[in-house]
Design goal:
single chain, about 325 residues, alpha/beta, Rossmann fold, 2 domains, four-stranded mixed sheet, 7 helices, 18 strands, about 25% strand, elongated, binds zinc ion
Length: about 325
Amino acid sequence: MAGENHRKLEVGMESIVRSLRQDPYALETVYLSAIAFAGRVKTIAPLVELPLFYPPKLPLGSGTSLGQALFHLMSEIDRNTIKTTAEQKGDWKPMVFLITDGKPTDNYIPAIRKWTDEYQNKATIVAVALGRYADLKVLKELTENVLLLEKTGTEEFKKFIAWVTASVSSQSKSVETGASDKLALAVVDKSVLQLVDDLRKFEAFDPDSVILVGRCQKKRLPYLMKYEKFPQELSGDAIRIDTSYFDFSGCYSLEEDYFSWSDGTPTKQTVNTSELRGAPGCPHCGAQVAFAMCSCGGILCINQPGKALCPWCEQTVQFDNQNEETSMWVGRGANGS
Ligand SMILES: [Zn+2]
Ligand SMILES: [Zn+2]
């Protein structure tokens, strides 16, 4: 983490500690520790009870060693928590806020496997992605509790920090009063922090993929077509030409609520359809072509050339045999505004 997010998180940790110290339940039950990870991983504040915890300075560094960070976290959990046995009541389940704004730069797969095999019942990870660059897919492999703070402005960050504080408070209250280990996160302000429950709703912004949203002519329901970038370059002595294209990778049916999860602002990026290879059929009705485009810009399914009723603009449109040479420009991302 670098730049603004780094500074805001440092200030945020001070605010979390200050607020929690006002909370009698938290003072009774909360222990805190901070582990920083960039290219390297280190415990920057060892586990201590809340009154003794001082928010550390966060180190700056390049890289996002998620795999190393998880291995480190697991050894810290082993070292510092007391397990419940027949003779003693151990510690409550640790709650880990994993906050990242990057994509993993090390091999994270063995660490995630070890975590899901051996630790996911011993501790709870709440992963928070700061901005769209973070890899939501990897975080989802690690935990079901993934949240996205899409905008990281001062106001949004304040609300995010308040939510972390409230979640720790409510967790400490629930263990103190209800003797429960169940995760008790605070209520999320959806305009700031979104729960990543279904990855497909969030995939539209990956720069290495193109997502197109169409609507079935018959059932009128939306579907999503995904193309993955296939990097390719032609090079000669004095010239390099990017000849990358996007390969078809999947077509998924969606429910109408897809649009309530999209933020409604049309994305400005466009993709030339001549860069797209491969076309699916419609996942709702089985029509042969899921990729026909109306003059309104909406994508719909058609089975044969001829007249069609566009489910986006309600106009009748005429489709002639597809011209292979034509390259249409279509909007990229959520097409539902
Ligand atoms: Zn259809
Ligand atoms: Zn239309």
